[in-house]
Amino acid sequence: MSKNNNSLSQLALQKFKKNFWGVFSFWVVVVIGLVSIFAYVLVPDNSKNANQMHLSIHSKSPGFKVKIIEIPNEIKEGDSFISKLFFGQNNTTTEIPISDFIVKDETLTYTEYASDGLIGQEKSIDINSFPNNEYEDFIKERHFIFGTDKYGRDYLSRILIGARISFFIGFVAVFISLIVGLFMGSLAGYYGGKIDAFIMWIINITWSIPTLLLVIAITLALGKGFWQVFIAVGLTMWVEVARVVRGQIIGAKELQYVTAARALGFRDFRIVTKHILPNIMAPLIVISAANFAAAILIESGLSFLGIGAQPPMASWGAMIKDHYNYIILGKPYLALIPGLCIMILVMAFMLIGNALRDALDVKN
């Protein structure tokens, strides 16, 4: 029996490998996942939430370059290596965009950057303020590949860090929906009768409420925040899993291997978990891939409405909300870039789901 299962799994894997778009989408998801985990290693601005603001250079076009002077603060760097790796580091310097500077008599005089041909304000600072008087190490030319947002933050950094929320909400939401959906669907499908009627009543009520409206209600009940959104999205997606599990178990519980398990005196819990569920995983895998995509879209919608991830946390949906009016102000890329990122990630999960459906279809 195990050899047969292994051969079927290998056959499905071979069929999946032959699907170009499925394999390509899988690697796209892997790359985005690695970027979301190690974002602070890759981003130009590794401050927490990439929230280093420079209002004098707000809304600059992609490829913008400017000199920036970093003035050391009295705050000591106390973050651990793990904290800086996964959550960024506290700002230990004050960054100021400048257009020019001169050094004279142990004093560094710089001119703050001003756009539209204006001349910025001149300020001075003692060279002794810099460690070992090496001010050259604190004046660098910064290249903003994706430009800056309306607060002057590095847009590329915000995009890469924003991938973390959109990516991980899929995992958390699907995990929660699988736990609740498998439990409710198994009870309804295996026992039937009044238990089935009661659970189907709950499913139908939940199904009748618009998903976004239900998520908003749960979010308001749990409060605004990072994990609250994850839990809220997961609690609204279990009904699809439960309906699929219920239907599959209703058909599977009359098969001979289930009858044999009952005759051997196995408990219901073991029959469901050890015998029935492993044989109905194919549709669950497909629906989980689809739920990944749905969770990403729901979170983006919540962030756009202002009840998702809260500022200054980076989120693709919130970035669209902050900059959608720039579409008519001549800088549509500020809204289009995060929108394109959402589209790529959602499409990748949908293509993976289609590839898995074809690979697990025993009729092909």
TrEMBL record:
Residues 163-353 form the ABC transmembrane type-1 domain. The keyword Glycosyltransferase does not apply. Gene3D superfamilies: MetI-like (1.10.3720.10). Keywords: Cell membrane, Membrane, Transmembrane, Transmembrane helix, Transport. The chain crosses the membrane at residues 20-43, 167-192, 198-222, 276-298, 333-356. It is found in: Cell membrane. InterPro entries: BP-dependent_transpt_permease, MetI-like, MetI-like_sf, OppC_N. It comes from the Bacteria. Its main location: membrane. PROSITE patterns: ABC_TM1. Pfam families: BPD_transp_1, OppC_N. It is a multi-pass membrane protein. Belongs to the binding-protein-dependent transport system permease family. PANTHER family: D,D-DIPEPTIDE TRANSPORT SYSTEM PERMEASE PROTEIN DDPC-RELATED, OLIGOPEPTIDE TRANSPORT SYSTEM PERMEASE PROTEIN APPC. This is ABC transmembrane type-1 domain-containing protein.
